[in-house]
Amino acid sequence: MAGNADVRRTVMFPSFLFVTLLVALSNAPVGDAIWLNLPSTGTKCVSEEIQNNVVVLADYVVVPEDHGHIPAISVKVTSPYGNNLHHMENVTHGQFAFTTQEAGNYLACFWSESHTQGGGEASVNIDWKTGIAAKDWESVARKEKIEGVELELRKLEGAVEAIHENLLYLKSREAEMRTVSETTNGRVAWFSMMSLGICIAVSGLQVWYLKRFFQKKKLI
Amino acid sequence: MKRWGKMWALMGLLLLNWVSNVSSLSVTVNDVECVYEYVLFEGDTVSGNFVVVDHDIFWSSDHPGIDFTVTSPGGNTVHNLKGTSGDKFEFKAPQSGMYKFCFHNPYSTPETVSFYIHVGHIPTENNLAKDEHLDPINVKIAELREALETVTAEQKYLKARDARHRHTNESTRKRVIGYTVGEYIVLALVSALQVLYIRSLFSKSVAYNRV
């Protein structure tokens, strides 16, 4: 998580109180994720359509209920071709990371394992990051020895590059769709003409056949 | 003292890293699906969009739509959209806490909704302690980041809409081929049936009584 990565750098500063405050705040289960309510039976799935060669980083934590008991959940993450990327049973937290090998719909399914509580809903905090949001800025800062404003500007530069890539991707998708539309357009014209042609041919055949039939029956 | 000032400025910078950001996820809405997001500071701008994808509409030309409601931690409805198949939203959070984003599907067919929620924070004087001063560069960087985030959000919206358009196009392509070939077969069958029927009208067993 972006918050965690930058908080670890605060140990350089002399103010221990604020270091602990920031560390405490960063470890609190709030900040940059979505929460889902898992019903006691049934699966809840989230999916995303991701391109090829994109880094995916996700964290999930089960929020403890009011009386301190932490319900257990099971997770299963599948690729668009059905490969199992991450499968854990009866856990309260975990994380998974992978680089996409194929473009398509990636599915992460959660279901509740605590059947003893009966009717209680488990809340899962999912922090799902793809692409530029999953980049480890802490290691970049360490490697290139940059910090502060320069690091922030570097992050903004990364965001702009991601925007540019997305734009190119949208452009290529639009081009593909335009091809499909134009083929369909051509096909509609051809098939309608063929339909008219078949109609005429079939009625011609009918008339010829009936004429031959009546001539054979000596009616005409 | 200058060193302390720099430290506070850097801490302010670190604090503003807590901007919430998720990728555009999709959920299947059977009846009601709720997603929760935590807003850290009061006055943060919560923005996002959602698009209903993957619904094969048969006759009608427009999607019937789903309802979208945002509830604040105090229980008030902050934002409400009815019967829409995709829209953008933006509001200023009246209080910090857990916000509930609910999708309600009034029809029996399950829908897949692709959504994106972003909580943006720009540091102001209220967020810092009394003896700190706000470094204008931090504010400018935060504003730049928020501007870039709006572009990213637009792109995610466009991507989701493009996915839905692609579904429609694929469906049209399949319909064109399927229905035309079916039409030809039915036409040929009907005319063959016609011929057979006329033949049967002239058959010997019936002919002497009729024609």
Automatic annotation (TrEMBL), chain A:
PROSITE patterns: GOLD (PS50866). The keyword Transmembrane helix applies. It is a single-pass type I membrane protein. It is found in: Membrane. Keywords: Coiled coil, Membrane, Signal, Transmembrane, Transmembrane helix. Residues 1-33 form the signal peptide. Belongs to the EMP24/GP25L family. Residues 43-155 form the GOLD domain. InterPro entries: Emp24-like, GOLD_dom. It comes from Durio zibethinus. The chain crosses the membrane at residues 188-210. GO terms for cellular component: membrane. The keyword Acyltransferase does not apply. This is Transmembrane emp24 domain-containing protein p24delta3-like. Its main location: membrane.
TrEMBL record, chain B:
The gene is LOC111291627. Residues 32-119 form the GOLD domain. GO terms for cellular component: endomembrane system; membrane. Keywords: Coiled coil, Membrane, Signal, Transmembrane, Transmembrane helix. The keyword Cell cycle does not apply. Residues 1-24 form the signal peptide. This is Transmembrane emp24 domain-containing protein p24beta3-like isoform X1. Coiled coil: none annotated. The chain crosses the membrane at residues 176-198. Belongs to the EMP24/GP25L family.
